[in-house]
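Fold Annotation — chain and its backbone

Encoding — discrete vocabulary of local shapes
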Amino acid sequence: MSRKPPQPLHPLLSATSLVPTIQRLLAAESSLLDTLTSSIPPHEARYATVILPIQESQDATQAAAGTFSMLRYSGPPDKATRDAVAEAQKLWVDADAERLKRGDVYALVQAVWDRDEEDVSEEGRRVVEDMWLEFRHAGHGVLDREGVEGYLARRTRIEELKRMFQANLSRDHGGVWFAEDELSGVPEIESSRWGRDAGRVFVKLDRAGYDAILGYADSSETRNKMHLANEDRLQGNVGLYKQILLLRDENARVLGYDSHAAFRIRRRTAPSTAWVGEFLNKLSEELLPHGWREIARLGKIKKQHLESRGEEGGEEIMAWDYYYYTRLLEQESAVDQDLVSEWFPLRHTLQSMLDLFHSFLGLQFVPVPDQDLEGKIWSEGVEVWAVWEGRGERRGEFVGYLYADVLYREGKYRGNCNVNLQCGYTKPDGSRVNPATILMCSFNPPTASSCALLKHREVVTLFHELGHALHDLVSRTRHTRFHGTRVTPDFGEAPSTMLESWCWMPAELVRMSRHFTRVDESYMTAWKEAHPGRELPAEKMPVEIAENVAESRGLNRALWFLRQLVFARFDLEVNTQPSTQALRELDEVALFNELQDSLSLRPSPDQKGYGFVHSNHLISLYDAGYYSYLSAQAFAADFFEANFAKDPRDPEAWESYRRGVLEFGGGKGEMEIMRGFLGREPGTGALLRSLGLREDE
């Protein structure tokens, strides 16, 4: 396909141009607010004359925020760019605080809110409500001028602390030295990545190193050594987290809320913090008996394994045992994750997933040629596709751009996420700005003998994040405020979580697979040298292996949910303390470890872990909202059971899902979207049935 997209690739801003660009855009927005407040008295304020111009200004500047968000996650190698990103972000946060200080702007927004114009579109009415809430949640209508300024000063300080917290996450956290004989059991493909010196091996404290040691090292002492080092890292974030908690608590209480969670729930799908607490308690009650049975099964495998090695030991599964004996359990179920990964070379798997979306929705993903990417991508290896409509009445229309930055590198965000580079919206002249969205992942890079390979859980992760990107691409809101994944977090994870189901379908696994030896002749040569006399593996994953993978979905699933409940219960507890004094006296480390012992069922008796500060989830977006990952599981199971269970490839079902869920973004109430799609209230029944905890109804 040789069509030229009607919208050019998003321009990159250099270290020297980033800050001046942000300053210019923020000055223009401030000037607009000055014009509106000086020319429109509150009694004449209307949606079209106040709210719409402000929102259209924000639509036009969103891409600049997307740029420094991208740079923050991608980890620029040069200090000049990192400093420019930090300065740009500070300018943005400070300008937002200045905007929300303005009582004259609030007066206009309040007047429009009170007027409640009937001829405003549903999305427009949501814009009014959201803008009004921004000012109310900054203290207007509740606090006097001095109180508003104090509130916003604390909020600005929170943003500073969050940046410090995030900077700590991005830094290299060292590693652990091991003797060669301590690494018995670790595959060569993993250990070949590590540095060596005088017979010792240095394993970095990153996800790849942690997974390799905890999952493969035969020695319990080796696994425990790595586990303790990992648990001990990022202690500096504990103090930052405490400061953030206290400032958020203070801000919530001065606005009249009982807690930060009560403040946050106002902009969530869940109706109340009490509902969240009840939801989590019910899940815990349902899951714990099944979790104990799963732990007992692992304990038996541990005892048998130790006896086979002539070692003594009981059946208790410690925190550093879990991944090792889960791997042995998978092997008992005829699932060898290393073998499975050979059929999932990263680049091929990603392309296969795009092919699935072509089949499901008719979307066409056309690679942007390398020569067109010069000066448009932030790191070598970033891929870009132009996305087009391939069927129906919109056939031939440009949809947007998909970027993929999927390999780990130093300084880059260590997790996996989706980043909005450019949100879609309609300009005042009626023309469309199409979205640009980024898969930002940190999968292991290639080795000397193999391309980058994905374990099955990483296949699931990639498809999950691609689900967020799909949500971004097909959303068709008028404004950026509610585009794509800009929805309440307790709903926003549901669409991508639902897509994970396709990674557990044997037929889809076979379709996505291709043995890495067929990717490049050099890999085939290396494989033959390493396996003399053996026949090459099949190009496509054998059906029996795919079926074994699919059947393994139920293995330790209750324990996975219980692990999520540790964070969800912790997050709710710290954000619903009865008083500021109670929060000040709360020992977060002790609480987190108590919940780990009681819910994850994997004790670590001699170690206080700091896992709650190992990612930014509990400080950014999912603060007082980590339960969203669990409520999203319930919503996702409901979506799948209602629409896709009979035929996961049904084009009509996919079109219904696209039109009835994805295209709305957040331009319609999230609960209303679910009711409209399901024809009823969403519930937990489908989730419990999928876990085998409830009979079919």
User: Anything to note?
Assistant: The chain has 28 helices and ten strands. The chain has a mean pLDDT of 94.
